[in-house]
Each structure stands twice: as structure tokens, then as C-alpha cells.
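1st attempt posting a full record on here, be nice pls
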Amino acid sequence: MKKEPRSFLPDPADLRWLVRSLDLRSFSAAAREMDVAVSVVARGVDRLEAGYGVRLLRRSTHGLSATPEGAELAQEARALLAQLEDIGASLSDQRSRVAGTLRLASSQEICEALVLPHLADLQARYPALRVELLADDRVADLVTEGIDVALRTTVGHSDLVVARELGRFERRLYAAPGYLEQHGTPADPSELQQHHTVTHTAQGPAVTWVFRNAQGKPLEVTVRSRLAASTSALVHHALVSGAGIGMLSSALAATDAAQGRLVEVLAPFASRTVHTLYAVSSPGRRNAARVKAVIDFLTKAAKERWTLAPVR
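the predicted structure (as C-alpha cells):
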């Protein structure tokens, strides 16, 4: 008679050890975070590997990384742990209490401009809330990376995400006063090809910028950058340092422009295209108290205290 395979029900604590060890790429870092011995974390992952009969982690001098099976389990574990937190809250007398861990993803520059200035207020309002900030220009996957809220300027059409508009802005050209004093200020978009330009590496070596001529018709200019950076924050810092002329969000450049560290270039030719900043969450998490509270807080912060260009 064929023996039925033994079912294995993992301990949620062990799943948490696995997820945090992968996030931090270290057993010891996960142990320090949870204030337990390293052996507790390692044994938890060992139990998972023994129970499932597969290897979940690779150990190397560079830290921990997931095997394909480990990555799949970590993805499911993130969703399960979030659901367990929500279930616990809904069954307690604190169902509306904002507590637990919230993972917030955005570009470094948006994080620095919108989140960090208001983080102390958020933590004071919700002392039981723990926030994990993931700053990266790439679009984070909400499910596989366990992201509760992501700040994005593009959303697309998908039933997999729920988006709330935080504000609107334009993209404009900027340069430092020192650069313009040394190299001159272009009077027409065609003159940009004779200037040092700064772009994002994701755009490639040749970038096409769109303007509008005096008659309001689109005007395209392709430039080859002298400097390309891998994040929008680096592009911004490079422009302030005088590296050249580049495109920035008007909202993110507003403080430097107001204080004279940046000057808008070719303002009469601006395309006037309006872009939108969104707070994005997955449908399964949008009703969690911590997700709703943080999105509400960021909506208010963006509207009242963050400089967003008005829609024209």
C-alpha cells in the first residue's frame, strides 16, 4: 500500500525568521532585530527545510540568498503573515488600532521629499506602527516583496493594484547657477545638444525630451548625456553640484529652485505635461488599518505640505 505523504504545517514564527533573514541577508541581523539568539533563527529555518524536504537558503560569504523554493515560500509567507496580523487585529478590541509592520517602497528622492520630513509625525500619531522604507527607483513587486504601500508615478491598468492619487506635477529642465554662468543659458531647445546634460541610466545614452514651441506644438530634442546616474536622487544631486542640465520633477526641485541652488532652463518651452504621484497597494491589503492610515497620512502630507505643481 502506497504511503501518503506527511503533511507539514509550519510555525508562523519560523516563516517570519525565513522572511526577515532573507530581507536582511543574515541570520544574525534577523536575530538582533527580534532580540533572540542566532540559533533560534537558524533552527527555525532548519525546521522549515526539514518539514518541506527542500533547501530554502543558500549561505555564502556575501550573505543569505533564496533558492527558487525559498523565494516561492517567502512570497507566500509574507502574504500569510500579513493576513495573520489582520486577523488578530479584527478579532481583538483593537481592530481599528494602527499597529504592526508596514513596508513602504518608493524612489529614494520621493522618500526623502515626502516621507522622511513627516516620519516623526507619523510615528508620534501611531506609536505601535513599525515602518520599513525600501528606497529604489525600480518598480517593486507588491506581492513577491511583501510591499504594503508603494509610491509610484505610473500605475497602468491592472486589477492587481489599488491606487490613490497624492498629487500632480510637471517635469522641467534645471541647472545650477554656476553651470549656467560658465557655459551659458540655452535660449532654444536645439541648443541643448551643445550643453552637458544629465540623465537617468534607465533611459539609455540618447534621451528625447519633449517641449512646446511658441505655437504650442510639440518639439522633440534628442540629447546624449555627458553623465548618467542610476537613481533620480543622483541626477538631482548632480545638477545641484553643477554637472549640467537635466530633467527633474518640479515638485522635487521646488526647494532648491526657491533657495537658488537650481534655475529652471527653457521655461517658455516646457511641455506642460502633467504627471501624477500615486500611493499603490494590493487589493488584499487596502483595508488593513495600517495601510489605510499611512495612505491617508501621506495624502494629507502631499496636499498640505509638499509642493506639488498645480494642474493647468
